Amino acid sequence: MTATERDRYSRQLLFAGIGETGQEKLLQSRVGIVGCGALGSFHAGALARAGMGMLRLIDRDYVELSNLQRQWLYDERDAEEGIPKAVAAARRLASINSGISVEPVVADLTSENIDELLGNLHLILDGSDNFEVRYLINDFCVREKIPWIYGAAVGSYGLVMPVLPGYGPCLRCVYPNPPTGAQPTCETAGVVNSITSLIASLQVSEALRILAGDCSQFQWYLTTVDVWTGSIRQIPLPARDPSCACCAQGDFEHLNGRRRAPISLCGRNAVQIHERKRPLDLQSLASRLSNVGAVRANEFALRFFIPPYEMTIFPDGRAIVKGTTDPGVARSLYARYVGG
Question: Is 63 helix (H, G, I), strand (E, B) or coil?
């Protein structure tokens, strides 16, 4: 540890739970953050300040004005320019701590790319907004024996659950199947920014305990909080389910792609179109689409406005179509303006 690092992290060095040994571990740690929204942007800022050696930020989306109420690393300029969240977060972190490595990845985490994106990391933090991704992370982390921290928040309510392969249950032990039917989202039920920051803080605390300490030393809990009613509840994590399809039987159905759909709903009156392995020349596409509707483009994405719809198209062929929740409409728009 350099003299500068000793000064920067002096308050953590004084804390008995971390100390010099723990700080050295943090400086050598590589952490993935899946989703850079309300939870993930807080994860990234807190871990950068704590001296995490490397952060890989994975997010498929771009900054919008409505994000600024609860997503801590972004500003109005990011929203105006439609900068991808991973890129905007990495730029901000560079000014917070230039001594760490930050790798932004503008992509959708899938069974096809998860080995490349998460394979060399020590811990994963869940900042995603859907169960498809969480069960995919769970399958991968159980198979690779990598700890990860599940977190979710909507309205004024949130929960945190650490998953430590070899020490306790996996996500599918506790929740064998994703919830069915329509689920509340920030877009339908709203969200208080204090619950997202609180849940993200608890996730970061669990990450620091795991990376700087010894997992066998601690009691682990599933924690639920409602900041509006003031209720906090902690339940000790149960033992592993001996019949769990994932951690007991090794059936990684999400990881092998059996549960993956070609189109994902983003949960905010939008549909995501997956067109992988189809690179696009955004400059040429912008020139062509400018004859049809308003176009705004940068090196990361192209935004195309055809009221009442808005399409954000990425270089890998992926697109987010706003203004509809109908996959058929989204497919039709994509085929008409980008190509089949």
Answer: coil
